[in-house]
From TrEMBL:
The chain crosses the membrane at residues 29-49. Keywords: Membrane, Transmembrane, Transmembrane helix. This is 1-acyl-sn-glycerol-3-phosphate acyltransferase. It comes from Pediococcus damnosus.
Length: 241
């Protein structure tokens, strides 16, 4: 899926860390609204979350969540309900800021925009570290692009695990699966949370990234087998269904 502003670029004066008290107050209010909407969304849109208790021992520290990217709206709302006792920040692409009306409000609701240039990485890195130090959660969709209702796990890069290794913070995988409902055409969603996954001591940083990548990818692939209903069939161009 793409948007009209797919090539949106961050302005040179873009800031990831806001100190304006009015902005921060509005941000807290908006986050509360998003939390209520996420609760209603999961309750009334047939979303159930399993194994959430694995997060409880880590309520007093920051951690990372990794999920398969299959819901344009649900992947924004569901993480707030997966970790209800924490503020959950979601890494998002710059194209999201170009969405009319909602785009500029995303950062107030918890989005951390991934920079489009290496020159802006330093401040971005500092904000990611700050959120983890503040004992918040950061949601990452390493597949990058939304494939609605896709039931398998797509390949992703070792680089997605740079931050858990840099911060030596725990990671969890969040796998959305699909099952047929008794009534209605759209499937029921069951979200499984697994972990923690920790960087192994004795490995260098690159090896730790590879290890986390493999562990989380394998877990998500295993959980994806809980999908029993394919609402949208995907095929390669020119391939018969």
């Amino acid at each position: 899926m793409t948007t009209k502003e797919q090539n949106y670029e961050l302005p040179d004066d873009y800031s990831w860390d806001h100190t304006n008290p009015v902005y921060n107050l509005l941000s807290k209010l908006l986050y509360m609204i998003v939390w209520v909407v996420s609760f209603c969304y999961c309750r009334f849109c047939h979303v159930s979350i399993k194994n959430r208790q694995v997060l409880k021992p880590y309520n007093n520290q920051g951690y990372f969540l990794y999920g398969n990217h299959t819901q344009p709206v649900g992947d924004v709302l569901t993480p707030r309900h997966e970790s209800p006792f924490k503020s959950v920040y979601t890494l998002a692409g710059t194209a999201n800021l170009g969405i009319p009306i909602l785009g500029p409000m995303l950062t107030m609701g918890g989005a951390i925009i991934v920079p489009d240039s290496w020159r802006k990485l330093r401040e971005f890195d500092r904000v990611v570290k700050k959120r983890i130090d503040q004992k918040h959660a950061i949601m990452i969709y390493p597949e990058a692009h939304v494939w609605p209702y896709y039931t398998k796990i797509r390949p992703f890069s070792d680089s997605a695990f740079h931050y858990p290794v840099q911060q030596q913070a725990p990671s969890f995988c969040v796998t959305t699966t699909y099952q047929k409902r008794r009534f209605g055409s759209k499937p029921r969603r069951t979200v499984y949370i697994d972990g923690p996954f920790l960087p192994k001591t004795g490995l260098n940083k690159k090896e730790q990234q590879e290890q986390l990548h493999q562990d989380i990818y394998n877990c998500m692939v295993a959980r994806s087998k809980s999908s029993t209903y394919e609402y949208i069939k995907y095929k390669k161009k020119g391939e018969e269904v």
